[in-house]
Amino acid sequence: MLKSVFQPLIAWYLAALKTGGYPLVVLLMTMESSFLPLPSEVIIPPAAHLAWSGGGLNLFHLHFSGWPAQIGIVITGAFGSWLGATVMYWLARAAGRPLVLRYGRLVLFPPEKLEKAERWMSHYGPMGVFVARLLPGARQLVGIPAGIARMDYRLFSLFTLLGATIWCSVLCWLGVNIGADITKGEMHRVGFWVGGTALVLGGLYYFFVHRHMARKSEVRSPKSE
């Protein structure tokens, strides 16, 4: 369902990428890091392939290709991720926990997810922001519990940028190495590789973090009763 909703936007992005260049990457990565579940694997890899194959990307009438373009994609992708995360952080900080609990479902953030995210943040602190930027389903929403907890914005920005830079670098590498699939329009194969990476990260998250947090919650619940 989500794929069909965003398909026109993705098609427009792929067609406009060569002329839109880096500002277009920033725009869509900002959207991806907000509450819109736009997959980053359809944003960074096509841009990386276009830059690597000689098409290059534009920035204010300047044209970049090859490795400089790749570095530019990582920087602009991370910057867009930070912008989207910043929006979520300040909205959550201004709204407060009661409002998020009441209306969080509208941005795919129900109360039970908020409670898990708050346990995550209280346990891992700023480092939890960094790890969340590498996990499927957590990247877009990590700004909400951080904003509610009023985490130091400088630390939030630092760890958001670090995590986003690593993730965009992985996607750039994939874009270069599976560029033929992008050229043929076989984005499902791109999704397969990115999905595999996300699955590994998700598995690590489940076995080393989720089960630990669940056990911690079970230990606390009898005391609260």
Account of the 3D structure:
The chain has 225 residues and is mostly helical. It has one domain (2-8, 23-54, 65-217). It contains nine helices and two strands. The chain has helices spanning 2-32, 44-52, 66-103, 111-124, 126-132, 143-148, 153-177, 179-183, 187-224; strands spanning 57-59, 62-64. A two-stranded antiparallel ribbon has the order 1-2. Strand 1 (57-59) and strand 2 form a beta hairpin. Helix 1 (2-32) packs across helix 3 and helix 2 packs antiparallel against helix 3 (66-103). The protein is elongated, with a radius of gyration of 18 Å. The termini are far apart. The model has no long low-confidence stretch (mean pLDDT 75).
Present the secondary structure layout.
Layout: H1 2-32, H2 44-52, E1 57-59, E2 62-64, H3 66-103, H4 111-124, H5 126-132, H6 143-148, H7 153-177, H8 179-183, H9 187-224
Antiparallel strand pairs: 1-2
Helix pairs in contact: 1-2, 1-3, 2-3, 2-7, 3-7, 4-5, 5-7
> Secondary-structure element sequence?
HHEEHHHHHHH
Overall number of strands: 2
Q: Helical proportion?
A: over 70%
User: Rg to the nearest angstrom?
Assistant: 18 Å
Largest sheet: 2 strands, antiparallel
Total domain count? 1
- The count of helical stretches stands at 9
State the strand order across the main sheet: 1-2
Instruction: Give the helix/strand class.
Output: mainly alpha
**Beta-strand level of the residues, as a percent range?**
under 5%
Distance between the termini: 41 Å
Q: Which consecutive residue ranges, at least 5 long each, have pLDDT under 50?
A: none
Gross geometry: elongated
